[in-house]
Design goal:
- This protein has 177 residues and is an all-alpha fold.
- The protein contains nine helices and no strands.
- The protein has helices at 7-25, 32-39, 43-49, 53-78, 83-89, 91-105, 114-130, 138-156, 163-176.
Length: 177
């Protein structure tokens, strides 16, 4: 009797396993052959589930952000709504995500950047929801920009600004708006 495959679950499994390789190698250095070898599947199987490296990358990104948003929401709830404390708990994940996005942006193949804009819009909506702000409002956008700034700053200098200090700065900025 032939093996019955849940294609949605198998696609998710491939994407979940590919995340580690994208993080280790970056976007630009990987080929579909290298990804298929890492996943222990024929290249044709990988192409069956993902028509391109970019499609796989985007899928991995959606898996990571969905999981990350859930984790941050749970942490914030445990911390009495302290978003920046919850973000600090996920700093390694956030930093890895931003590093991959920069690598994707540097891709010389002219990859379609529409998905990047969609991903960043997802972050903006998450921040707006987490801060009970309207998407596009000064409070939501200010929080988003501060979040990106602190992730970048702490990536370059881990002993730099603390997350708690970023939260204090955000509160000061909100009072000015």
């Amino acid at each position: 009797m032939p093996k019955i495959i849940d294609h949605g679950e198998y696609r998710k499994e491939l994407g979940t396993r590919a995340i580690a390789l994208f993080r280790a190698e970056g976007y630009r250095t990987l080929s579909m052959r290298k990804l298929a070898d890492y996943l222990h599947v024929p290249k044709s199987t990988l192409y069956h589930y993902f028509p391109s490296k970019q499609a796989l990358f985007e899928y991995c990104g959606s898996l990571v952000t969905g999981s990350l948003f859930s984790q941050i929401s749970r942490e914030a709830a445990k911390e009495g709504g302290n978003l920046f404390k919850a973000l600090s708990e996920q700093e390694e994940e956030l930093t890895a995500e931003v590093a991959l996005l920069f690598d994707f942006l540097r891709d010389g193949e002219g990859a379609d950047k529409t998905s990047l804009a969609d991903s960043l819009d997802g972050y903006r909506r998450f921040i707006a929801d987490s801060t009970a702000s309207e998407p596009g409002s000064p409070a939501a956008d200010g929080t988003y920009l501060l979040l990106l700034g602190i992730i970048l700053s702490r990536s370059l200098d881990p002993s730099g600004m603390e997350w708690e200090r970023a939260g204090e700065i955000l509160n000061l900025l909100r009072d000015c708006l």
